[in-house]
Design a protein that fits this description.
Shape of chain A: elongated
Distance between the termini of chain A: 51 Å
Number of strands of chain A: 0
Largest sheet of chain B: none
Shape of chain B: flat
CATH architecture of chain A: Orthogonal Bundle
Helix content of chain B: over 70%
Structural class of chain A: mainly alpha
Distance between the termini of chain B: 60 Å
Radius of gyration of chain B: 21 Å
Strand content of chain B: under 5%
Mean pLDDT of chain B: 87
Number of helices of chain A: 4
Strand content of chain A: under 5%
Largest interface: A-B, 75 and 80 residues
CATH class of chain A: Mainly Alpha
Oligomer: heterodimer
Order of helices and strands of chain A: HHHH
Number of helices of chain B: 6
Helix content of chain A: over 70%
Radius of gyration of chain A: 17 Å
Mean pLDDT of chain A: 89
């Protein structure tokens, strides 16, 4: 792999770290989801960078397009869940969910 | 290459801003700005279709969905841990140093496995070689639509 690929991987790792830090430390559900989105960006960047390095940009692009479609469905469902959780608990604090009993 | 590095730095900075800013609306806008930069990076990496999807869908649609949710929930009332926000820069710098050292060690040591070079257009690759992905995409979209419908259906009066 060429050195440009390592540059992209460096930034991918930075994005991954940022997203995982958000998931581990934040409490607001919307913030947690923003963390997941940041991790998603790292994944997209990895796919295209690897496609570019292996001269398979077209296949990488089609994978990224598929990923984005999946991401949209995921975001729609997750945000609908967040709204429902807010209606039930009147809070977006993740710790409130631990108190729920089924 | 310098412009590409600047764009990547901007992407990382906006992503960091998105998780550190207290105001959720500003966080959503930072995330949209990060998506916009990622789209431009894709354009410069000869991946225009991925760039178009990233800018139109992720920077546009998903940001609108986030803003709608923030408006409907008024951002919630959870206070973030102050320690997490203050400790982030220290962890971030340590991680960047470790990341840079690892990448420097790995340069030229990861072999690029040989593979056939692709030919044709994006449409041919998407329709001919990734046909099942398209079927999967349709299934995922339907699953998402039905899930949202199920989550927002009106409950029976008996349940309330």
């Amino acid at each position: 792999m060429n050195s440009t690929w390592f540059l992209y991987m460096f930034f991918t790792a930075v994005l991954l770290f940022t997203g995982i830090y958000c998931l581990l430390t934040m409490r607001n559900l919307i913030k947690l989801f923003i963390g997941i989105e940041v991790i998603g960006k790292a994944i997209s960047l990895t796919l295209v960078a690897t496609g570019l390095a292996k001269r398979n940009v077209l296949a990488a692009q089609s994978l990224v397009v598929t990923y984005i479609v999946v991401e949209v469905s995921l975001v729609a469902v997750a945000l609908a869940l967040i709204i429902n959780i807010y209606r039930k608990t009147k809070s977006l604090d993740i710790r409130q969910l631990a108190k729920l009993k089924g | 290459m310098v412009l590409q590095i600047l764009l990547l730095v901007g992407l990382a900075l906006f992503s960091v801003m998105a998780i550190l800013v207290k105001d959720l609306l500003k966080a959503a806008i930072s995330l949209a700005a990060a998506s916009l930069l990622l789209g431009i990076i894709f354009f410069r990496m000869n991946a225009p279709y991925a760039g178009v999807f990233e800018i139109s869908v992720v920077a546009g649609l998903i940001t609108v969905l986030f803003m709608l949710t923030i408006a409907l929930t008024k951002g919630g009332d959870s206070a973030e841990s102050k320690v997490a926000s203050f400790a982030f820069p220290a962890f971030f710098v340590v991680f960047i140093v470790i990341d840079a050292l690892i990448m420097k060690k790995l340069i030229q040591k990861v072999p690029a496995l040989p593979g056939p070079e692709e030919a044709g257009t994006f449409g041919q690759v998407l329709w001919n070689t990734r046909t099942l992905d398209l079927v999967g995409q349709i299934a995922v979209i339907f699953a998402g639509v039905f899930a949202v419908l199920a989550l927002f259906r009106k409950g029976d009066k008996k349940d309330e």
